[in-house]
Amino acid sequence: MNDIKSKNISSVNKIPLISLMERASIPWGIKDKESRFVYLNQAAVDFCNIPKGFDFEGRLDSELPVPWYELAPELQAHDRKAEQSKEGAEVIETSYFGRNAVLEPWLCSKFPFYNDEGEVSGTIFYAKKFSFISISDFFNNLKPSVVTLTPPVDTFTEKELDIIFYAFQRLSSKEIAIKLSLSHRTVENRLQKIYEKIGVTSLTGLLEYCHTTGLNNYIPKKRLREGVEFFW
């Protein structure tokens, strides 16, 4: 553990953003490629509700004495996705955050950072409270969860992801067609192409695929914007 911490701290000191993070009022943090915490500013320590004096460096999400440790598998999968994209990835995390342990959603944006050889060394992230005015079906009953705004797989087109999003909610083809302003036949054709891509023949197979790959926790950004008016 000490060797890991020494190596991580050495790498962190080379990142010019550290001075910015130290003074920031919003949570900022850094993880290595195994999702071990390397750095958290004070705002992030408070946001994560990490007990004062607890040594978080070199630890995984699941190893922290915090209410949201059970979300670790989803959070780590999101770390891997962020590492694969220069544009990073976004996720909405809902749990008991802050020193008052209030159940609320936060938007977390993650980006890869690189070593001197240009190799990915881990992720840098920040979080902002997700405040909403009107509530979509996804937020009617808040509970600890992770909702990703970045597709966990690269198999589908944007239009196919829209259909999968509604199909997972068990909307019929006609209902999906109305939602997307498409013809019923167009939706049916796209569904068949989706089935062919993943080797299934029915909605049941698609639902199982979504659970396996994490698509069950995915919301297209444009659909979220349509259902929720939000501000920072």
From TrEMBL:
SUPFAM superfamilies: C-terminal effector domain of the bipartite response regulators, PYP-like sensor domain (PAS domain). InterPro entries: PAS-like_dom_sf, PAS_4, Sig_transdc_resp-reg_C-effctor, Tscrpt_reg_LuxR_C, WH-like_DNA-bd_sf. SMART domains: HTH_LUXR. Keywords: DNA-binding. One of its GO terms (molecular function) is DNA binding. Residues 149-214 form the HTH luxR-type domain. One of its GO terms (biological process) is regulation of DNA-templated transcription. Coiled coil: none annotated. This is Helix-turn-helix transcriptional regulator. It comes from Candidatus Williamhamiltonella defendens.
